[in-house]
Amino acid sequence: MSDLDLLYTDVEDDLRATVRDLLADRCDPASVTAVYDGDRSPVAGLWRALAVDLGLAGLLVPEERGGAGASAREAAVVLEELGRTVAPVPFLTSAVVATTLLLDTEGDLLGSLAAGERTAALALPLSTAPDGSLPAVAADADGRLAGTVTSVAGALEADVLLVPATAADGIAVYAVPAARAGIAPVVSLDMTRQIADVTLDGVPGELLVADAEPAVRRALEAGAALLASEQLGVARWCLETTVGYLKERRQFGRAVGGFQALKHRLADLYTGVESANAAARHAAAALAVRDPDVFAATAVAQAYCSDLAVTAAEEAIQLHGGIGMTWEHPAHLYLKRAKADQIAFGTPGAHRARLAELVGLPLQGE
Amino acid sequence: MTADETALREDLRRRVADFLAAHDPMTTDRLEFLRARYDAGLAWVSFPDGHGGLGLPQALQPEVDQLFEQAGAPDNNHQANGIGLGMAAPTILAFGTEAQKRRFLKPLWTGEEIWCQLFSEPGAGSDLAGVATRAVRDGDAWAVNGQKVWTSGAHGARFAILIARTDPDLPKHFGLTYFLCDMTDPGVEVRPLRQITGEAEFNEVFLTDVRVPDSQRLGAEGEGWRIANATLNNERVSIGRSAIRESGMIGVVARTWRERPDRRTPELHDRLLRLWVDAEVARLTGQRLRQKLAQGQPGPEGAAMKLTFARIAQQLSGLELELLDEDGLRYSDWTLARPEKVDFTGRDAGYRYLRAKGNSIEGGTSEILRNIVAERVLGLPAEPRVDKDIPWKELPR
Ligand SMILES: Cc1cc2nc3c(=O)[nH]c(=O)nc-3n(C[C@H](O)[C@H](O)[C@H](O)COP(=O)(O)OP(=O)(O)OC[C@H]3O[C@@H](n4cnc5c(N)ncnc54)[C@H](O)[C@@H]3O)c2cc1C
Fold it and tell me: Is the N or the C terminus of chain A less surrounded, counting Cβ atoms within 10 Å?
């Protein structure tokens, strides 16, 4: 087995620069903070710029279906940048998870997602792990859907919900226009990825995938694998911002970044961020080539990066002192995103439990 | 992987296959085989042509080693020569003259000549630039006098990398020179130092009028500190690196876990899985660092790798004793042995636990490594260095 490339290609570096420029222009911390006070006005424009102008919505879609034909490696780079700015856009939920679910479907939904004309969300709780339990929504013989799904991410931005439902012969995925579903916004810990409770009261769904459990799990796997790159972006921002601040901030007549207690904490954080970079890159690279190791790679990346991003955000707040506790300073945006991300697509503990099976280290038995 | 890399890999596989066809590992004499492998450039492939390599990316090395291992080829006794392979060799390659490379690299790689590191002294550990061992020019040689300590494997070593003070009138970092010292010189006296495991893997080394020919000076006079740092950066990336999942300490502890279902508890399970993840991520981080370095010299980033390695090894080996429960109360043997190899994962669980304590001290303590990362990677303000501009001879000791 030859090693996967854990670095970035020139093409990936260029993509990063383009995305970073756009976000610097259109996604400043003040406008992100405003979503907590209910001002979501810049969100649609930002998403349009990313999805349509830069064509990122179609990154994972093959060229013959109207996409860019790129791979998970490029999507991961985009997520690093989105994490770095805690951008309130449905890239992960629509362009990664929903898109992955639709990759093997016919019909024009995939193409319209790729073009950024429509946005979709998978109607499962954001906390669902790739091996987690699937839905309570029921489908009758005519494809009418009834049930409630709580804590769905991306539903508020979606035009179409992809609803896994229990039909007579197993799980199937149906498309439901968002306008036909009851979508109740939830006041969320992370308002930059606000969740919603979705209620379906007998609305007719269009059957997209029959026997859909493998496809749903594959979509969740992609979400979990690439979430690690978002977490890496969150953590890197926290590290860089904190290092920068501690070089400037002076107390006791010197830059506080010169105190060894703080230097050592930042050295540990750097070590963690570099480690997260390797883990996240490995998961993305494994996903890109559908390496058989992708399950372990994802579980490792999630188990590691989820906690690391939270630690990075916690350290950022502590090491900024009082300013870190304010609404004005952006550090809190990162803590809220990091903590919600830790729960998203399975907690670190859930991924470790999965890993125990995958690598043959069970609590009981052989 | 790019098309270029695939082609390189293909070509390399073919070279190994051709070599093995011409030198049957089963019938060829061990040393003859190793020397021929070196001459064929299949020893350390990232080294240049003519010095045991082919100038290829380091990332290709694990595959080559694997191919030779699978063919049942003799190994170069690398466990006994970690300092030679991991530290002396890359330093000699980077700073040595052509003649020095010709003289030293080949027998180093084949394991015919084992190396040790004469850096630390009783008065100069973390503050390595403070070494007091003196080297005084005497014709075409240097006369070296002083005392070194914690010298791993000095009892089996043929050569040593040595730093000594050549100009006490300069501030401490400037008056040092780097030498390659013959351990069979009559002025070298090696005394065992017993360590917490019961063994004496390291030593005190007394140097009395040791003659080191000037041809064994590495780099210019006064350049010792810069070269020593290159050695230390190499040390930090070479300690504990593993190319294969579940190798090293995690491999040992995972095996114990699988063999002892009777001892498992949910609490230990949770700790084991956390450490399994950490070890796998550390392996990937090492892989990423190697891909980044390709053929260049490692920088201070390697310090972060070594920090992680030490922490994981210590936590895992502690966990293993608890997992063994009652059996963890037993120890194999306290008698004073003189091991030839440095083996972090050998012997029994008690030994591993005790030996791992050295991982956060040897090659720079974890505190010093954090300083290095903070200052040289993150650019945070340096520690106060009250002695850095004062001539070494005037420093209080
Ligand atoms: C198993 C083993 C094998 C070794 N093998 C070799 C070898 O082969 N060759 C060789 O040359 N050396 C070898 N060493 C020596 C090793 O490099 C030194 O022990 C190490 O550099 C620490 O130096 P010291 O022992 O003098 O401790 P000190 O420098 O006295 O340190 C004492 C404590 O103070 C801390 N400290 C010191 N300075 C600072 C600072 N600025 N900031 C914060 N904390 C600080 C240290 O971290 C440590 O906790 C070996 C050591 C061990 C344990």
Answer: C
pLDDT of residue A1: 45
Q: Which residues of B touch A257 (CB under 8 A)?
A: 380-381
Contact between A101 and A162 under an 8 Å Cβ cutoff? The reply is yes
Tell whether domain B229-377 is in CATH 1.20.140.10.
Answer: yes
Residue A266, H or E segment: helix A260-288
Give domain status of residue A2, yes or no. Answer: no
Whether the CB-CB separation of B179 and B157 falls below 8 Å is answered with no
Q: What is the pLDDT of residues A222-265, one digit of tens each?
A: 999 999 999 999 999 999 999 999 999 999 999 999 999 999 99
Chain A nearest-CA residue for B268: A363
**Considering only alpha carbons, which residue of chain B is nearest residue A2?**
B63
Residue B1's H or E segment, with its range, is none
Which of B113, B235, B320, B362 is flagged as catalytic? B235
In this structure, chain A runs to a length of 366
- pLDDT tens-digit map of B325-334: 999 999 999 9
User: Ligand 1, closest atom to CA B195?
Assistant: 1
Span A67-121, pLDDT tens digits: 999 999 999 999 999 999 999 999 999 999 999 999 999 999 999 999 999 999 9
Contact A311, B344 (CB under 8 A): no
Q: In terms of residue numbers, what domain contains A324? A: 214-358
Among candidates A255, A275, A359 on the partner chain, residue whose Cβ is nearest the Cβ of B381: A255
Rounded to whole angstroms, how far apart are CA atoms B52 and B48?
Answer: 7
Give the pairing type, strands A160-167 and A182-185: unpaired
Distance CA(B16)–CA(B30), nearest Å, equals: 17
Q: What is the mean pLDDT of residues B195-214?
A: 97
Residue A5 located in a structural domain: no
The predicted model scores a pTM of 0.94
Q: Which residues of A touch B258 (CB under 8 A)?
A: 360-361, 366
Q: What is the DSSP string of B157-203?
A: -SEEEEEEES-TTSBTTTSEEEEEEETTSTTEEEEEE--TTSS--EE
Domain with CATH 1.20.140.10 in chain B: 229-377
Which residue positions in chain A have pLDDT lower than 50? 1
Judging contacts by C-beta atoms under 8 Å, the chain A residues touching residue B282 are 275
ipTM above 0.90, yes or no: yes
Mutate to test the pocket of ligand 1, among B150, B207, B388 (most ligand atoms within 8 A of CB): B150
CB contact under 8 A, A277 and B288: yes
Strand-pairing partners, residue B147, are B206
Q: Give the residue on A whose Cα is nearest the Cα of B253.
A: A361
